[in-house]
Design brief:
Shape: elongated
Radius of gyration: 23 Å
Number of helices: 9
Strand content: 5-15%
Structural class: alpha/beta
Number of domains: 2
Helix content: 55-70%
Amino acid sequence: MGSVFRFLVRAFPALIFLLFLLLFLSPIGVGIFNIGNAAGAVVSALLLCIFIFHKQFAALVSSLWGKLPGRIVLVIIGFLTAAAIIWAIAVSCLMIREMNDNPPDPNTTVVVLGCKVKDGAPSLMLKKRLDAAVSYLESEPEVKVIVSGGKGDDEIMSEAECMYRYLTDNGIAPSRIFREDKSVSTEENLSFSKKIIKENSLPEDITIITDGYHQLRADMLAERLGIKAYNISAHTSRWLVPTYWVREWFGVAYYIVRR
């Protein structure tokens, strides 16, 4: 009975990490590969191996701990692991907070951040952002919107043009929509949109529509540009959330270091 219990104690975490490994690898099948699923897959595979080969792992740790250089290496790894966990938890808490920072009143300019355009149509992620925009704009008929996103080398039109067509096809009046079609990054999305706001005397405070995982970094960039931003989060397909969530841990770290 004791041996069965010990087996289950090791097998259950191994199964969990196997599922996480598959979850991080699955976006590759649709052409999504970034530091989020790369890091998630590596860590999941490492933890899976530790639970499968637990005896060998324990022997390796014991061998390293028996020598001073090995102890130093293990202590460094321990500190780095603890720091990474603390960072991931802290950033995740901030991300969750920003996901729910909805505008208190409609006197803002909506900015929809661009995403991939495939064969002239919005990708699934971009469509979710646009659906969130349509829903909000229908509820607030006086609000103006900037659709922001340039044209990638593998896109037949700019993201802004694609978004413009989608919104007008779904009943949003063209007079309410401003196109910003030069940006190639979130920072440029916001910087170029700020210029459009100034040129057209639109409300200076903005409501950013993007995926929830992206709201924290978008807000940080807006703050650096002197823009007061609120958020409306689009629905992200659940199987993609881990990949993009982990990517934001690195994205926020890069933003802080670069700043």
